[in-house]
Every structure is written in structure tokens, then in C-alpha cells.
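Notes to self, Prepilin-type N-terminal cleavage/methylation domain-containing protein:
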Amino acid sequence: MGGRQRGYTLIEVLVAFAVLALALTLLLGTLSGATRQVRWSADAGRAALHAQSLLAQVGVGEVLQPGRSDGTFDDGRYRWVLEVAPYVDPELPPAVTVDPFAPQMLALQLTVTWGRGGARERLQVQSLRLVQPDPDTGLTL
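result:
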């Protein structure tokens, strides 16, 4: 028996397991971050679709008037707030007289939030609408 048997020592096996555990931890952390990004992307895309749908319906079949309204989508998962106000062009001086029968430009600001409603969980869309007044009542349509 001139030769000595060669094998791994207990310390070498423990070091190998520690390196493997560290590599798996880093890999799983990366996959977890990717999963969060995919989820955020899906939520933001769905919020954009809800916002587009809501803006397409605003003022259709109803009188569009300045004010604030709110509601929810998907059983409360997405919350929205719509603010409608007369549009004021910052480049033009304020009008002295306003014709109640002239078309009026309204500014719409829609905010859709989901989750906790933080900065990354909020979508804000702004739009303008030209509305014609109703000749009988003077209200905008």
C-alpha cells in the first residue's frame, strides 16, 4: 500500500456548498426582480387601456361640464380621478368677455392609480375637448 487515497476534505465540501448557495441566491434575486418588472409592466399596460377606454367615453351621450369625478376598474384594483376644467391658454391674455354660445375648450386630466398609488403606480393623462354649447340651455355638450 504505497499510495495514499485522495478525496475531498470536509472543509472543501463546505466551501463548495457555500459558493453554490451564494450563486443560487444571486440567480433567484435576479429572477425575482425580473418578475416584479413584468408585473409592473402588465399593471401599467392595463392602466393605460382603462384610461384610453374612459377618455373615449367621456362626453359621449352626456353633457361634459367642469368638475371632478372618480371611480374604480377591475373590482377596485385600479382607481381613477377625472378632473375637467375650462382650458386657459398660457400664451394668450385672458378674455374680457366670454360668449356663452361659442364653442369652449375643456382640459381633461385623468389619473389612474393601482397598488399603493406611489409614483411608479400612477398614470396621468391629459387631453383637450372642444365642446359645443346647447343653444337651448347654454350648457356645453
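- The longest helix spans residues 10-57.
- The chain has one domain: 10-131.
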